[in-house]
Amino acid sequence: MKVMKKFKYIIYSLLGVLGLASCDLTGNINDIKPEYVLDESTLIRDGKSAELALRGVYQQWRDKGLTLILPNMCFLSGSITGGGIEETPFINNDVRPETNNIAAYYVSLYRIVNYANTVMEQLEAGKAVGLDSLRRVEMMGECKFHRAMANFFLLRAYGQFYDETSLYGIVLVKKHMQETKAVPRSSVADVYKLINEDLDDAIEMAPEYVQNHYSVSRVTAKALKAKVLLYQKEYKKAADLASEILEEAGEFSYVMEINYADIYKNGCFSSEVLFAPYTFGLIERLTLNVNGISPGVYLRKVADDFVAGKGDMWTGEGFDSRYVATFIKTSGPNNNGKYPNNDYVDNTISNTCFYLRLGEVYLIHAEAAIRGYQDYAGARTSLKAITDRAGYDENYVNTISDGDLLETVRKHKLIELVEENYEDWFDLVRYYKEGDLNITDVKPTVTSDTKLILPIPQTALAGNNLLEQNPL
What we know:
It is globular, with a radius of gyration of 21 Å. A two-stranded antiparallel ribbon has the order 1-3. A two-stranded antiparallel ribbon has the order 2-4. It contains 19 helices and 4 strands. It has helices at residues 2-6, 47-59, 64-67, 70-77, 87-91, 100-124, 133-158, 188-205, 218-231, 235-248, 260-266, 297-305, 321-328, 358-373, 376-389, 402-417, 423-433, 439-442, 458-463; strands at residues 80-81, 273-275, 294-295, 356-357. α9 crosses α14 (358-373) and α14 runs antiparallel to α16. The longest helix has 26 residues, at 133-158. It is an all-alpha fold.
């Protein structure tokens, strides 16, 4: 438990950067006034304080603004149903600018951008006296990753990520902001440009090997880049990079869990994790809103149809085994197989959010190989790694026709990742925009393209008079 004890008081590292995190692009909703704030000039003084500041960036991925919205994002696709905080607008695909949840999500992501900018600027200014030069470069790479992922999450939530010709991108914050500034949105193309530049730097600069998977490595950065390329419709590049990751992952200790349920039991310590926030015990926990949620009708049908069974909701018989592990044979405080741990008991493994894991890379490769190269054999090989673990027949992937393979990959990704990182919703949008499905067949309440992205929060508009609202 030495590693766990080492990070037990990471939360206190935030005291030095909390006051620097405010990004006034969001107006009053991000007006943080802590009682204790270190002066910016003393934030980073040496190697130890630099590491603490960097851990503060990592810690922000546990923020409630990011974690409490999780079920609501799944309500958008209809993959799950149940209660939540402000759930009705998400269930009805009618989220309004005044919805508190989207404001908190917006703020939390910009906070990460601002933290990362602050740490990078301090490192570049040579404030970390005595810090090893190699470690300085690695830390810069980690910050680049965090900024890239936060900007990517902002873009796909609030920008027309599916159209690089669109002007509806997001506000880009490239330097730490301390003053209120009115800044216009950047185009989608320009946002992707910065994200890719940051990820290219992270691939070159981040640590090559990390002992703990909740820390960012070059493999982590490659995985996010493969995902970004998929969203950009750069399918050949996405397939090539995903293939590279799958070939080298084991060399850097990223290995698929043998049992699907073990991913969630092990949390941020899982061998399959590429990036998940460190959580352990009562202090380093994150707050989730996942108790008592249920599978949606569409998800239940997919899980049933895959095994050609008449699924039994009590026993799980006749359903895909991953669906069973998530929703049927569950116990614990959340009644949910993906978040099985009790976060209110100290000295125990806690639930985390799985922002990136190796299983998703297999599915990224499968989709990109089909779209980019019409490489159905390669796609089947990647999909087989997923379906074999799920208990499907060894020859299952060979029974899928070429014409059905792309949609089958999407459905397996839906079951594999549901309740994790909202891919079920964004995949619906991407496939719809590529002409591969009618989105209303899956979610009838998506009645127009204006419902494909979230509105800019009203409070953000109030704090930035150059910020233009999305079409409503």
